Amino acid sequence: MFRLFSAIKTLKPPTNDALAAKHQAPYFRDALQISVSKHQLSPSQLQYAIFNYLPNWVQGLMSLRNKIVKLFGFDVGVNDMKPVSDELNIGDKAGFLTVIEKTDDEIISHADDKHMTFYLSVKKQDNDVIVSSLVNQKTTIGQIYVNTILPFHYFIARIVINNAIKANRI
Fold this sequence. Notes:
Number of helices: 3
Largest sheet: 7 strands, antiparallel
Radius of gyration: 15 Å
Oligomer: single chain
């Protein structure tokens, strides 16, 4: 599967970045690195370029996921991750996420409910962007959920990033 996404490098999750400071056991963390051709884009614009263009089938899966997890007490909101703008500020919504930190080289968004807290980081590093997620699992239901969706997460994250590369948005 990973040969399909040769432009995307899987990293060992950083231990000294802003997300590492937010982890609480049990948690899941991953990080993907991509070389970008549009070096002028801010982290916010990179997040927009990647997540504003979710394929319809991903939006359909998100809708189905929301219907199922709502039965287990998860907070559900919008079915996509489309930001309202390509330049977000602290407090702005990016789909179901809210921007909580922003620097010249990184933007961090999160969503929180009783079962888990999800974080997304988009960080510029030289000519690369690192997209990283962290999920703090607060309950057994949160742990079951994360373990169930991991195969989908791995595939969908790479598809969405790969689509941004192929469309020359990043």
